[in-house]
Amino acid sequence: MKYVPDATADRQFESDNTVDRVGVDGLLSELDEYGVEQSLQIKEKAGDDTTVTALCVGPEKALDAVRKALQMGADKGVHVIDDAIAGSDAAATSLVLAKAIEKIGAETPVDLVVGGLASTDAGMSVVPAMLAERLGLPQVTLASVVEFQGDQVRIKRDGDTATEVIGGTMPLVLSVTDQSGEARYPSFKGIMAAKKKPLETWSLSDLGVEADQVGLAAAWTEVVDTAARPPRTAGEIVKDEDGSGATALAEFLASKKFI
Question: How many angstroms separate the CA atoms of 31 and 176, rounded?
Fold first, then answer.
């Protein structure tokens, strides 16, 4: 899961053109809530011997994202925090996540790694695929419908021109879209129960990751420049005083390539 700046708030950039994740309000990425929801539905069908672990990499405030997943029904949480991670791109983020998943799996085998469609602050949609490569697992991604039977997973993926049905055998990496099912709201009981659930905090050293493997200096991509969104300008009013309004409107739409 990812802790992201609130899309309704005034999002900002740091002096190095990385997203400000400390000085702004943040929350669990809405698109990742669908991944949490599918994980909980799988647990409900599989039984109480299934454990859902909420994993998040981010600054101190990212702990709120882990707590939200615990309140929704996840069994335990893991928060990876380290100053060296700031500015990491998708490649470095996937490395940290993969190492954390391997550490979790050293205690209890991981059958399924579930993620959302994309993060609302970057929208790259590549981390699940990168995770699958790093973990050496098959991937079934961008699922709008998820079905399970034993260790078999079948998904429906909706594209622009066709719908695909893809299957795989666990363990595997799964990502789901916002069409997979509405995410539940934490109940009062869930909020109270979350306070007693285990929540671990790990650093890069706990995962065996060197600081020079992550961060802005190790990133394969960077934001070179940013500019504020220009203020809205007054719209153009087309008056139909002599019967030419329809023509003027059509010409305006054509100039903007709307028609």
Answer: 9
Measured between alpha carbons, how far is 188 from 199 in angstroms, rounded to an integer? 19
Cα separation, 105 vs 158, in Å, equals 31
Quick one: which of 25, 24, 33 has its CA closest to 2?
33
Helices 63-72, 30-46: inter-axial angle, 10-degree rounding:
40
Residue 2: which of 27, 25, 23 has the closest Cα?
A: 27
Q: How far apart are CA 192 and CA 61, in angstroms?
A: 20
Structure tokens that stand for 156 in this block: 């429906």
CA-based nearest residue to 50, from 137, 100, 111, 105: 111
Question: Taking the chain (259 residues) in consecutive chunks of 10 residues, what is each chunk's mean pLDDT?
Answer: 82 78 82 95 88 95 95 97 92 96 94 92 88 96 92 92 94 95 94 96 97 92 82 81 84 87
For residues 251 and 244, is the Cβ–Cβ distance under 8 A?
A: no
Phi, psi of 92, deg, nearest 5: -70, -40
